[in-house]
Amino acid sequence: MFVVARHGNTFEAGETPRRIGARTDLPLTAAGLVQAEALGRHFANGGHRFVRVLVSPLLRTRQTAAAILEGLARPIQPETEACEWLREIDHGPDEDKPEEAVLSRLGHQALEAWDSFAKPPPGWIVDAEMRIAAWQALFAEPQCGSTLIVTSNGAARFALLADPALLRSRGDLASLKLPTGGYGVIQRDGDGVLQVPIWGRRP
Are 147 and 3 in contact (CB under 8 A)? Predict the structure, then answer.
C-alpha cells in the first residue's frame, strides 16, 4: 500500500495565497503543523504501520513527514528518504505570485486543465515524463509493507497517471488535486491491479 500525503498549510489565516513551488521553500505555519499532526493521529488510529517513508526535499514536506511519524508513536521509526522527483513543480513566471495574478495571466481553462488532466500551463516547468516514470518505478518495486509518501500538490497528481488502472478505479474523480493536509491511498487488489480507494481526503 502507498499512502500519498500533501504537506500542511504554508500561509497564515488571512494571508494572500500564492503559487508556491520548487523555488520557494516555506515552512509550515502553526495551522499547517496541526494538520500534519492530525494526519499522524489519523494514520495511527487506522492501524497504519509504515516501513518506508519517501519525502520531497522541501522543508514543508519534511516537517509534515516528521509530525506524521511522531503521531504514530512507534518506538522505532522508519528512515525517511529524500527524493528529488517528489519536489514540487516550478511555476515559472507564476512562482510565488498571488492566485489572482496567476488566473489573470493563464485564465480558468488552463488552470482547470492542470487540475483535471495535469496538463501544464505555459511557462511551468513540470517534467511530467520523469515524474510518471518515477511513480511507475516505485509501484513496480517489491513491497513488504506500507510506504508513506509526503509531497506537494503538483507532484502528487502524477501518481494517478502512472497506470491507466488508477484513473479507471476513480472514475468519479473530478480533480487530481490533493487538499492541503490531505492524502490518498494507492494499493493493489487481489489480482495485482493498482486501485485508488481514497484520494483527496482529510483526516
Answer: yes
